[in-house]
Each structure stands twice: as C-alpha cells, then as structure tokens.
Design brief:
44% of the residues lie in helices and 15% in strands. By secondary structure, it is of the alpha/beta class. Strands 3-2-1-4-5-6-7 form a seven-stranded parallel beta sheet, with helices on both faces.
C-alpha cells in the first residue's frame, strides 16, 4: 500500500497518532492518510512484515502487538507513546470478522471475537487516557461497523462485538469529555479491503453495490478521510457519535 501524497497544507503537522491494525486494509489507509496530513504515526499490529513495510512507506514506526494479551498490549502501547513523546490521537482499527450460523457459534468463537474487537479497545483506551488527560485532551476514534446498527445473519458474534464498540465509545465520551477527550466510532459498510478478497466475486460486488444509493462499495480511503477529520480542530465539538460510512446502506 502506497502512501498518499503529502498535502500542500497539512492539517495535522506533528500530531502524534497511534493506529492499531494499521498494517493494511482500513487501518493501513488511516495510517497513511494521517501521515500525509503531517502527523507522526505509530502502527500497532500483529502483521510484522506488512506493518514494517507500510510504516516505512509512510514515514512512521511499527510495533508488533498481541491484542489477545492485555498486559502485552498495554506495554506495547506505552512503548509507542514513549517513542512519540506523547499521544494526541488513538485510532482503534484492529479487528476480526467471521461468518458462522448462530447455532454454531461456540463460546470460544464468541470470546475471541469480543477479545479482539472490543476488549482490546478497552485496553488501549485505558492506556492512552491518562496521557491525554495530562496533555489537556485528545481524540479517540474506534472502528465499529454498520453491523452494530443492523445486525446480520451468520454474524451474531461479530455484530454484537461491534455494538459493544459503540457503547464503549459513548461511555468514554461521557466520562472523559471533562478532560478534553473526544471519542467517536466509525461504522463502515461493505469496504473493499484484503479481508474477504479471496472469496469476493464480481457478482457479489454487484449485489452489494446495489444496496447503496451511490451504487458502489466503500474504499478504505472513504473511512480514512473521516477518521482524519475527527482529529482536526473542526471536529472538536463532535463526540459520542457512531458515524455511518456506508454509502447510504444505513441511515440511522
């Protein structure tokens, strides 16, 4: 993934940003977009080769992390913050997806989905929050999904975990606003990323595209642009929201 060109007037020069799941996909595009806006970006991901290469391409740094291990996740997050000399923005993009009929979801399936998609966000948020409090504020952007609002057949554990992300984000907004911290969630719809590419057919893309009034599926850059906006001064009064990035597939 190549970094977008640096804009002529970067909107976020020197802003310190952590992006979990930033090695590729939506997280990779978010990391690249922040870097293009002049931010200093640290990518936290389990994909060492992809993460290292992408960080080098955008002029950022890479930190290997196991989000299933809360103690390790806290330690790696603290190390990334120390390297940046603080943290202004946290983007929690790391997550997993699985299709499985409701009657076949095991306790292990459920726990793994929630551990990565929701509990890991709690861990990183708790780690960065004191630093943001001391600095007088910060921005938190959590990646949820349109599944958090509409559910979906064969993805009960995924949809429930993303609904938990929305609730967690709103709680943070209410509790931490007094410290100058905003917290918002993004709820993407069908986005064309590496995830699922092996089974994605032209017929499926056409079917999914027809669900959007715009007649197309999302690109990672569509989500990245909104993530960056949430870190700008213009979004300073926006908090506690679960913003749809679905091309009109979900409108509530």
């Amino acid at each position: 993934m190549n970094a977008p060109p640096v804009t002529s007037s970067p909107r976020l020069p020197g802003v310190r940003v952590l992006v979990t799941g930033g090695a590729r996909g939506i997280g990779g595009s978010i990391a690249a977009r922040f870097a293009a806006e002049g931010a200093r970006v640290a990518i936290l991901d389990r994909l060492v080769e992809a993460g290292t290469a992408h960080a080098a391409a955008i002029g950022g740094t890479f930190h290997e992390v196991d989000l299933l291990d809360p103690a390790s996740a806290r330690a790696v997050t603290e190390a990334a913050i120390a390297e940046l000399g603080g943290v202004d923005v946290l983007v929690n993009s790391a997550g997993i997806f699985e299709l499985k009929p409701l009657l076949e979801i095991t306790v292990e399936d459920w726990n793994r989905m929630f551990s990565i998609n929701a509990r890991a966000m709690l861990t990183t948020m708790q780690t960065v929050a004191p630093h943001m409090f001391d600095a007088g504020g910060g921005r938190i952007v959590n990646l949820a999904s349109m599944a958090a609002k509409k559910g979906g057949a064969n993805e009960a554990h995924y949809a429930a975990s993303k609904a938990a992300v929305v609730a967690l984000t709103r709680a943070a907004a209410m509790e931490w606003g007094c410290h100058g911290v905003t917290a918002n969630a993004l709820c993407p719809g069908y986005v064309l990323t590496e995830m699922g590419a092996a089974t994605r057919t032209p017929e499926l893309v056409a079917q999914w595209s027809a669900l959007s009034p715009l007649g197309r599926l999302g690109q990672p850059e569509d989500v990245a642009a909104l993530a960056v906006f949430l870190a700008t001064p213009e979004a300073g009064y926006l908090t506690g929201q679960a913003l749809n990035v679905t091309g009109g597939m979900v409108t509530h």
